């Protein structure tokens, strides 16, 4: 029985394996600019999925509206940079801060709700944010969108100039860095006392309260951290794609795909959502698209159905992070 | 045995050299980035059909092989840029045509600029796209040309003094509404009602009452099919006393007439091209294109297909012209050839300014008369006389 429950690899080892893979991927792809740009998208999705999983997988609060925080972060940075001339690097930080603040606006009332009602409240919040972006035309340019958003400025390290406009590879490694930062935040948070409190809240609110956990504060921190990380990724997206409209920034994609990636990769492993994002992107790009040029997205649905029915814990769910009885922290 | 082998090889090479597949010049690699799935799929598919027809004709005419690469951007901005990475960065195409929607063309045209690859679009009208002054950016149509047809016809053909404008809050309709308002005001036409409505609005009566109270001569609705249906229905209920009902795009088309029947009569709409609207210098080209399109795809070409066809045709001609001049295809020579273009086409005269915008583009304004689209403006494309005043809910 012990063999069955024993993990194949620890969370840390799994993190290192995925990290190594992410770092090596451009080499494996021969620095092909197209595939590199495809995996930039996958890493953005992966980072958002890790952040989403902190709230859902660790704290047990499912969100159907992470597009709200992604869009807030994206718009914050785009507006600051295009209208007031801020540095895009500062925009990334501001995107995270405003994403976190946005989460408090919805979190404080929504944490009175439970289960699907909380998830739907966040979904509604995303729609409200989208409508605001559509109608605050003096700030957001409304439905016309913000065009010509500046890319991240080049960095000069000695004689080495790192350019973010022309090179996809530099963007890849920046987003990889951001993704690892998100992962480390979630990793250390989960290992802290607060992480234990989140696990307790995940188990049962009332029991957690009974053992002295401040349930509201715990949920609020989980949501704020998750939203902050998502906001940073939204800000990066704005400077990477260089165009933003309410439809793209608050697209349902940023609410749905992190859930899909997490379910696919496994919600119980912190790195699972990242692995899920990489695998579904790879499968889509290298397998489904090859055979079904225009209908390849159909396979996502089928694949997800297969995973939910036959492997409900996801790719890494049973293989990462579980300790057998004899293991010690 | 050895001699027989040599003779056989000679025959094989000789046949290959003289076969119709032998091309006069090295292949031209033409990339297409267009939505084939997602919200804009229908438009992107029609665009690609037009481009494919242009490629067929070009190969026959010049005996130069065209290696066409078509990538689906899935109606997504990120994928649009990624498609260009693939076309320009990996496939090393000589130029890219296609692109539909300003939000997709924006990132895609920037990616093309990074690779110094000429990019020619037919589906993005936002002013900001050319404001960047990308040296590789060209387009066949833009917003001022659409607005010019409406404001020109309202002032010159209808002689309206006051116009009420209602517009859908989506990007293209919001932009054309503002552009038309500015142009009308500059021409001395009053715009006392300028109201936005959200996508999905079904009750237009409060907005129409404002138009009624302001005593407008014409009602201009910058929207889409459901908006036209809703406004015409409510205008009928209110018996709105205006003399003309003008829509933006997708109005007065055969599908529109089929759906609305008599309630489609007398409405005005803009179109870049419809069968029979070509200037007289390009009538022959129009007829040939339509015949070839019908033969190839067993359907009538839409204006989007016509735009796709023209973009493919002029881009290929430019690549070839540049190639002949320099001995090899180069982005610089292709750009030069495009900039020197000045031709009369089925959608009017085509030439580009220094930003890649069309110098002479004006859409046509037509009126639905007995179910048919009769172009009434501009005058060089006019097909019949305007019926004014007249609205679908009863002549005024």
Describe the structure.
The complex is a heterodimer of chains A (329) and B (396). With 329 residues, chain A is mainly alpha-helical. Helices cover 71% and strands 3% of the residues of chain A. In chain A, a hairpin with a 2-residue loop joins strand 2 (155-157) and strand 3 (160-162). The longest helix of chain A has 27 residues, at 215-241. Chain A is globular. Chain A starts with a helix and ends in a 19-residue tail after the last helix. Chain B contains 13 helices and 14 strands. Chain B has helices at 2-18, 41-62, 77-90, 102-114, 127-131, 143-158, 171-186, 205-213, 225-238, 254-260, 283-297, 303-326, 331-339, and strands spanning 25-34, 64-72, 95-100, 119-123, 137-139, 162-168, 190-197, 218-222, 244-247, 268-271, 343-345, 348-350, 364-369, 372-377. A five-stranded parallel beta sheet of chain B has the order 2-1-3-4-5, sandwiched between helices. Chain B is elongated. Classes of the chains: A mainly alpha (329), B alpha/beta (396).
Question: How are the SSEs ordered, and which strands pair?
Answer:
The complex is a heterodimer of chains A (329) and B (396).
Chain A: H1 2-5, H2 11-28, H3 33-58, H4 67-84, H5 88-110, H6 115-135, H7 137-140, E1 146-147, E2 155-157, E3 160-162, H8 168-191, H9 193-203, H10 205-210, H11 215-241, E4 243-244, H12 246-249, H13 253-265, H14 272-291, H15 298-310
Antiparallel strand pairs in A: 1-4, 2-3
Helix pairs in contact in A: 2-8, 3-8, 3-11, 3-13, 3-14, 4-5, 4-6, 4-11, 5-11, 8-9, 8-11, 9-11, 13-14
Chain B: H1 2-18, E1 25-34, H2 41-62, E2 64-72, H3 77-90, E3 95-100, H4 102-114, E4 119-123, H5 127-131, E5 137-139, H6 143-158, E6 162-168, H7 171-186, E7 190-197, H8 205-213, E8 218-222, H9 225-238, E9 244-247, H10 254-260, E10 268-271, H11 283-297, H12 303-326, H13 331-339, E11 343-345, E12 348-350, E13 364-369, E14 372-377
Parallel strand pairs in B: 1-2, 1-3, 3-4, 4-5, 6-7, 6-8, 8-9
Antiparallel strand pairs in B: 10-13, 11-12, 13-14
Helix pairs in contact in B: 2-12, 3-4, 6-7, 12-13
